[in-house]
Structure formats: C-alpha cells, structure tokens
C-alpha cells in the first residue's frame, strides 16, 4: 500500500515534462508581453529589442530540443562503427573545445560496431561531450574510451571538470534540471530516451579526484 501511494504522488515523466515546458515557455512570454506593453506605451529603448530576441531564442532552443524527442527512430537502424561516430562528433565540437583550451582524446580498438540510428547516437555523444566541455573552465583533456566484452560495448567520456555534487546526482536527466545560466536541462533526458530505444543505458559517476565519467553501455549486436 505504502509503495503505491508513493508511486501515485510522484509526478509521471510526462507530467514533469508538461509542467516544465509550461514554465519554461511562460517566463519568456511574460517578459515579451511586458516589453511589448512598454513599447506600446511609447517607452522605447534599444536594449529592449535585444532582450526580446534573447527570450525568443530561448523558446526556440527549447522547442527544437523537444522536437528531437518526438522524432521517430528511422526504420534504417544499421550496423555502425562507434569510432566513426565519435570521430564525426569530435570534429564537430573541436572548435568549441579549442576556445576553452580543451583537448579531446580518443582511444579505442576502432572495431566496435553497434546496431543503431546513426544520427541519434551522434546526438547522444554530442550531448555528453558538450556537457564535458561546459563543465571544464580551466581547460584540460576530455578522454573518450571504448571497450567491449562478450555482452557489452562501452563508451566512456571522462572530463576534468568539478564533478557532480552527491546531492544533485539523482536529478540529472530530469526534464529541465540544469545548474547552468543558459542551460535547458534537456540534454541528459534526451540522451537517456535515445539510449532506451537502443536497449542501452547510461551510467554516471563523480570521480574520486576530479571530473566526472559518463559511460554508455550498449548491448553487443546479435
Ligand atoms: P544542461 O546542459 O542544459 O544543463 P543537461 O541535461 O545536459 O542540461 O545536464 C543537466 C545538468 O547535469 C547540468 O546542468 C550539470 O549540472 C550536470 N552535468 C551534466 N554533465 C556534467 C559534467 N560532465 N560535469 C558536471 N556536471 C554535469
Ligand atoms: Mg547539456
């Protein structure tokens, strides 16, 4: 009885998501309305336009990230080389890393293949490596490893950021949970959803000394 009560009091993911979207969209809308009213009343300042554009951009980012979730898996799941997907994503994110003096290093046998939707798994890698870059303000190295056993193929992404405080680790992946000024808090949720569709999962841990490790665990293709 106890368990059922706890379950029913906990908001469903859909409920959390709906509440989050409403909240995240309402705030910029309220601010847009306020600025429009000021303009209507004849109070004109150049900076109002900049703030209004920023608010609109915030809503654009949120809606385009949400659209990604509703995208169906393509019917063309294929056997893809993990190394080639990691390579593509490193090329894509290298300029952003370079600007923060961050080096991205990859080590693997290059032989691992998984059965997947290539663009979705690349999105997972983008989300995780972007988070690693955003966590590292002092420069440093992001290390990416792949390894495999009889049953699993793993990809680990290890950063040298401040790590994840124990008290928030259980919130990671909740829709709209972010500790960043301009974060959406959707990256890890989308990541987990995509991985679920691939019978894969995500493990996260704060490292002993420095940084965090995010490990993706894929099943070996049949
Ligand atoms: P966002 O990046 O928009 O904040 P995410 O879902 O990608 O949303 O991440 C949620 C939160 O998880 C981040 O705001 C941050 O607090 C934490 N986080 C994720 N990755 C890392 C990391 N590599 N190091 C430290 N904290 C992280
Ligand atoms: Mg993120």
From TrEMBL:
Its EC number is 2.7.13.3. The chain holds residues 150 to 371 of 371 of the full protein. It comes from Virgibacillus pantothenticus. It is an enzyme of class 2 (transferase). Residues 20-222 form the Histidine kinase domain. One of its GO terms (molecular function) is phosphorelay sensor kinase activity. Signal peptide: none annotated. GO terms for biological process: sporulation resulting in formation of a cellular spore. The keyword 4Fe-4S does not apply. It catalyses: ATP + protein L-histidine = ADP + protein N-phospho-L-histidine. This is histidine kinase. The keyword Aminoacyl-tRNA synthetase does not apply. Keywords: ATP-binding, Kinase, Nucleotide-binding, Phosphoprotein, Sporulation, Transferase, Two-component regulatory system.
């Amino acid at each position: 009885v106890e368990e059922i009560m706890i379950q029913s009091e906990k908001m469903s993911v859909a409920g959390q998501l709906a509440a989050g979207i409403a909240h995240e969209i309402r705030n910029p809308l309220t601010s847009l309305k306020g600025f429009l009213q000021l303009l209507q009343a004849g109070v004109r300042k150049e900076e109002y336009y900049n703030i209004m554009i920023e608010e609109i951009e915030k809503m654009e980012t949120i809606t385009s990230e949400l659209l990604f979730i509703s995208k169906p898996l393509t019917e063309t799941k294929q056997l893809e080389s993990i190394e080639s997907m990691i390579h593509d994503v490193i090329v894509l994110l290298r300029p952003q890393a370079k600007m923060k003096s961050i080096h991205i290093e990859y080590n693997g046998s290059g032989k691992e293949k998984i059965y997947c939707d290539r663009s979705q798994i690349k999105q997972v890698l983008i989300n995780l490596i972007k988070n690693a870059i955003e966590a590292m303000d002092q420069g440093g190295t992001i290390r990416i490893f792949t390894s495999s056993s009889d049953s699993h193929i793993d990809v680990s992404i290890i950063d040298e950021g401040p790590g994840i405080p124990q008290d928030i680790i259980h919130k990671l992946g909740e829709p709209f949970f972010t500790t960043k000024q301009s974060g959406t808090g959707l990256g890890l949720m989308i990541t987990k959803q995509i991985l679920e569709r691939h019978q894969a999962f995500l493990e996260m841990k704060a490292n002993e000394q420095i940084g965090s490790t995010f490990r993706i665990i894929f099943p070996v293709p049949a």
